[in-house]
Amino acid sequence: MRIGVLCSGGDSPGMNAAIRGAVLRGVEVHGFEMVGFMDGWRGFHEDDRIPLDRAAVRGISPLGGVILGTSRVQPFVSGRGDEADIRVIRDRVDAYGLDAFLLIGGNGTQTVAQMLTDHGIPAIGLPKTIDNDLSGTDYTFGFDTAVSIASEAIDRLRTTGDSHRRCMVLEVMGRDAGWIALHAGMAGGAQVTLVPEFPESIEQISEWVLSVRDRGRSSLVVVAEGFRLAGGAAQTTRDGLDGFGRKRLGGVAEVLAPLIEQHTGIETRATVLGHVQRGGSPTAFDRVLATRTGIAAADAAHAGQWGTMAGLRGDRIAMVPLAEAVGHLKTVPEARYEEARLNFG
């Protein structure tokens, strides 16, 4: 069997470990021939590929980034995903002699994996995203690393904030789901955590910050980039569009900081963590999860379990139907937010 491996969407720590797990299991155990397409669908459409064998994946598990590269290039030439687009992909699959795909990515990538399988092009998904917003799996690889980086930033900001009696506002990633903010805020002991799912008013935020000041402490506020103030405020955007044609988010901390200072009289500073959350070596947890995911995907390909995704369920990797993983994001439930909110201020 000849399998194409392709990464799509934003990079996520652990992608190299997932590739290594899939290749070692697929090539060494099942006898597959595996090829990797460079820079996602760009490499597929332009026939830019490399062989994947034991030598190609030697020593890559601890490395950040991804050896194949990734991009937000669309899989479908017209962008519609109609029969003509599927025909283009099928013709190239035949030209490359491929039997199936292993697709590493988030919600969009897994949606494509389901579409391909539905049209007779076998595919299996490997779930990666630092946002942890993909349904069908308890955790995605890359999330733990992003939370660890954000938690370290909180620890560092707290010391400088305490030194100057300032309120520090840290912006982390999270367009529609606030998992990074929720977990990092809890791990770092933030006094306020703001997520996209649950708007809060500036009056409430200021009340929490003042409560902290009245106890002789300095506030640390963690905010996800997709957070919006209560009352119908829009998300904070920067100029331009992202790779999916959506408005580019970012800068909500820089909006909140002066508002907090205005309402409380406390000097407030903003820090935007940005792509630091995606960079560097993956944590041990993400390396293990990604490796197990790659192994499970290769085993599923050998068993012909097409149209599935290797998701973490409890402490085991289960092959989840792609239909359960796509179509809706896994957002922070109200109970989890309220659990944290009770300790704000």
Report on this model:
By secondary structure, the protein is of the alpha/beta class. The protein has helices at 15-29, 41-45, 83-96, 107-118, 143-164, 179-188, 202-214, 252-264, 284-303, 322-325, 334-341, and strands at residues 2-7, 33-37, 49-52, 100-105, 123-127, 167-172, 192-194, 220-224, 237-241, 247-249, 268-272, 308-313, 316-321. The chain has a seven-stranded mixed beta sheet, sandwiched between helices. A four-stranded parallel beta sheet has the order 7-8-6-11, sandwiched between helices. Strands 9-10 form a two-stranded antiparallel sheet. The termini are far apart. The model has no long low-confidence stretch (mean pLDDT 93).
Topology:
Blueprint (H helix, E strand, L loop, with lengths): L1 E6 L7 H15 L3 E5 L3 H5 L3 E4 L30 H14 L3 E6 L1 H12 L4 E5 L15 H22 L2 E6 L6 H10 L3 E3 L7 H13 L5 E5 L12 E5 L5 E3 L2 H13 L3 E5 L11 H20 L4 E6 L2 E6 H4 L8 H8 L4
Parallel strand pairs: 1-2, 1-4, 4-5, 5-12, 6-8, 6-11, 7-8
Antiparallel strand pairs: 2-3, 9-10, 12-13
Helix pairs in contact: 1-9, 5-6, 7-8
Biggest β-sheet: count, sense, barrel?
7 strands, mixed
How would you describe the shape?
Answer: elongated
Given the helix and strand composition, which structural class is it?
A: alpha/beta
Number of helices: 11
If you average the pLDDT, what whole number results?
93
Specify the helix fraction band: 25-40%
CATH class term of the largest domain: Alpha Beta
Strand content: 15-25%
Q: What's the N-to-C terminus distance?
A: 58 Å
Q: What count of domains describes the coordinates?
A: 2
Instruction: Using the coordinates shown, work out and report the CATH topology of the largest domain.
Output: Rossmann fold
CATH architectural category of the largest domain? 3-Layer(aba) Sandwich
For the CA atoms, what is the radius of gyration? 22 Å
Q: Outline the low-pLDDT stretches.
A: none
Q: Report the strand count.
A: 13
